Amino acid sequence: MYMAAAAAVVPPSGEAAAFKLGFIGAGNLAESIARGVAKSSVLPPSSIRTAHRRPDRRAVFQSFGVRIFDSNAQVVDDSDVVIISVKPQAVKHVLLELRPFFTEEKLLVSIAAGIKMKDLQEWSGQRRLIRVMPNTPSAVGQAASVMCMGEMATKKDEERVASLFSAIGRVWKADEKYFDAITGLSGSGPAYVYLAIEALADGGVAAGLPRDLALGLATQTVLGAAAMVGGTGKHPGQLKDEVTSPAGTTIAGIQELERGAFRGTLINAVVAATKRCRELSQT
Ligand SMILES: NC(=O)c1ccc[n+]([C@@H]2O[C@H](COP(=O)([O-])OP(=O)(O)OC[C@H]3O[C@@H](n4cnc5c(N)ncnc54)[C@H](OP(=O)(O)O)[C@@H]3O)[C@@H](O)[C@H]2O)c1
């Protein structure tokens, strides 16, 4: 689902979907996106292309129908939308090298964490740009992705990119000034939740449960609680109140969480990660 300001849903078919998609950097995230796109029929795998110096990475993409080219330049040349999916430290070098192959008809999309639009534009010479920040649950089709539009990107470009990233989860649109905070929340957030799941399971073990059962219950409880917030549209505070009976078990647990500054700690974690992201993108 694609959430713009008014939560518009972009249909994953039609004119916006008929294009060729190239990946520069056939790594983990490119693989998740390509698999999601091919599986959801946003594009047939034959419309996706990439190149890689390592045979094992070429074989992975080839195994689900992606076309493999000999060079990055060929990928750019034969794509309408080019996703830059190399590590952030390689982006400048790769874009400077590919600069002669970009034309005004092509859309450049960057998923590189911390690389700003103005640098992408300067290195590639391309003004038709969209920057996207996905997160690691893209591997299981549950990414939270945020996109921001470059000055020359069109409505059709927006729809195309929204349809691509809708194939691996949910998509929002936001101004670039929010990207450090987005990294601090949804970029780093999966790790905070992994810690929470591990700690809940440890609590179950401390209370006498077998490890497997404790981990399964902790995982499903987090999944179920997230689905309740997303599915009912109720504020999480209201859902919490609804399961918290007077002098009951849940309020006893919550009291202990508050003693450990649970909410304040999570708030501070997002703020600290945002600050660190800002520092890193300045150096
Ligand atoms: N993983 C996520 O969920 C996530 C979330 C948000 C943003 N991102 C961003 O997504 C980008 C990719 O992350 P990733 O986790 O997918 O990294 P990755 O698995 O390391 O993928 C990068 C790939 O690019 C290849 N590569 C390096 N230099 C290249 C070049 N000159 N030409 C073509 N390919 C080249 C690498 O090959 P070698 O391994 O052989 O060097 C590797 O296969 C990063 O910029 C990251 O900030 C990732």
UniProtKB/TrEMBL annotation:
Pathway assignment: Amino-acid biosynthesis; L-proline biosynthesis; L-proline from L-glutamate 5-semialdehyde: step 1/1
EC number: 1.5.1.2
Domain Pyrroline-5-carboxylate reductase catalytic N-terminal: 20-114
Signal peptide (from-to): none
Keyword Amino-acid biosynthesis: yes
Catalytic activity: L-proline + NADP(+) = (S)-1-pyrroline-5-carboxylate + NADPH + 2 H(+); L-proline + NAD(+) = (S)-1-pyrroline-5-carboxylate + NADH + 2 H(+)
List of residues binding NADPH: 72
Limits of the Pyrroline-5-carboxylate reductase dimerisation domain: 176-280
Positions bound to NADP(+): 24-29
Location, primary (coarse class): cytoplasm
Primary enzyme class: oxidoreductase
Biological-process GO terms, alphabetical: L-proline biosynthetic process
UniProt-annotated location(s): Cytoplasm
GO CC list: cytoplasm
Keyword terms: Amino-acid biosynthesis, Cytoplasm, NADP, Oxidoreductase, Proline biosynthesis
GO MF terms held by the record: pyrroline-5-carboxylate reductase activity
A Pfam family assignment: F420_oxidored
Family classification: Belongs to the pyrroline-5-carboxylate reductase family.
Protein name, per record: Pyrroline-5-carboxylate reductase
Species of the source: Ananas comosus (Pineapple)
Gene (UniProt): LOC109708379
